[in-house]
Amino acid sequence: MQTNILSQAMKLDNSNQHKWMGKCNMTITDNLMFPARVLPQPVIEYHTNGWINPNEKTVWMDGKKYYLIPAVCEKWYAVALMGPREERFHENQFCTYIKMFLERCRKHGMQIRDPIGYEYIRRSKEQDIESLIIKAKKSAATFIHFVTADELNYHARMKYIESQEQILTQDLKASTALGIVMKRQYQTLDNIVNKTNIKMGGLNYSVHLEEKCCDRWLGRPGFLIVGLDIAHPSYSMVPNKDRNSVLSVVGYSANIKKHPLDFIGGYRFAKAQMEEVCLFFFIIIIYSYLILF
Fold first, then answer.
1. What is the C-alpha to C-alpha distance for residues 247 and 41, in angstroms, rounded to an integer?
2. Which spans are transmembrane here (predicted)?
3. Whole-number Cα distances in Å, 133 to 81, 128, 139, 264
4. Considering 35, 175, 180, 246, which has the largest number of Cβ atoms within 10 A of its Cβ?
C-alpha cells in the first residue's frame, strides 16, 4: 500500500504522466503482485536462560545473559592516551571506566582478571604506541584496552602494531568512555564488551533457524562453511608506474572452531589480479587453521 501511494505521488505508475519518462519514450506497466511472508525473528541462544526471542524493535537488550562461550583473559593492560586537552577525561574517570568495563565483562560470564598495568599518558605521541604494546607483550599480556583522546588519530598505527606484534587491542574514543562514566550508557558499554569477547576468542550467542531440520543440518559435526572475498585494486585510481606495487586483498572466514557457528578469519595480500594464486594461498591458510583447531 505504501509503495503504491509513493508511486502515484511521484507519477511512477501506469498513468504515464511523468514528463521526463515520456520524453525518454519510457512507459511503466502495472505493478506485479507476489505472495510473501514475514520471516520469523531469529532465536538467540545464550549460555543461560535457554533460547530467547528478541523483541519486535530488534533492540538487543536481551544481551544481559551469560555469553554462550565467555572468553578468558589472564593478563591485560589498560592504557589512556591523552592529548593537549586531557582535562576532558581525567585519570580518575579512566579508572572508573575500566572498573565498569570489568564489571560488565564478568556479568556476561567472561573470566577476566584486573589489568596488570594501568597507563594514563598525558600529551601522548604516536611513537608511544609501539613501546606500550611491546612492554605489554613482554609482560605476557594478551590484550590492551586503549582509550584515546578524540583529537588523536592513532588508530591506524595501533592496528598496524597489533598485527605486527600479534597482541589484541581495543581502541575507544575518550568521549565515548566519558559518556559511559557520566551518563551511565550501559548499552554502549555492552557493545564494547560484546566486541571484546569476540576478539578474545569467545562467542556471544548462537542463532537458530526456523526449521529444526535446517538447524540440525547447519550444526552437524564436521560441516565446514568457508567464505572467500577477493578485493582487487582499482587501476583507474593508481598511476601506471605504481601498478605493480599495488596488491589484491584475500579475505577468508570459516567455522573451524568447536562451535559450528563460531567463525574466524583474516586476510592476506597477493599479487594483483592473480586469482589463481589468491585461491592457492587461501586453501593453504584454511588447511593450516584446520590442523590448529
1. 41
2. 277-292
3. 13, 9, 10, 23
4. 180
The amino acid present at 107, given as its one-letter code, is K
Range in 13-17, 80-84, 92-96 the model is least confident about: 13-17
Asked if 97 and 137 count as a contact pair (C-beta separation under 8 A), the reply is no
Write b or e for each residue in 103-127: b if 16 or more Cβ atoms lie within 10 A of its Cβ, otherwise e. ebbeebbbebeebeeebbbeebeee
The angle, 0 to 180 degrees and rounded to 10, between the axes of the packed helices 91-107 and 174-183 is 70
Beta bridge partners of 264: 254
Closest to 149 in 3D by CA, of 58, 84, 234, 226: 84
Q: How far is CA 158 from the centre of its chain?
A: 16
Q: Which of 204, 207, 229, 228 is nearest to 218 (CA)?
A: 207
Determine what percent of the chain falls in helix, strand and coil, rounding each to the nearest 5: 40, 20, 40
Q: List helix spans (H) across the chain.
A: 2-9, 19-23, 91-107, 128-138, 155-165, 174-183, 186-199, 212-218, 275-292
The domain segmentation of the chain, as residue ranges, is 1-36, 72-199, 221-292
pLDDT tens digits, one per residue of 90-125? 999 999 999 999 999 999 999 999 999 999 999 999
pLDDT digits 0-9 by tens, 187-216? 999 999 999 999 999 999 988 887 788 888
Residue 17: CB atoms within 10 Å = 11
Separation of alpha carbons 86 and 239, rounded Å: 42
Residue type, 137: K
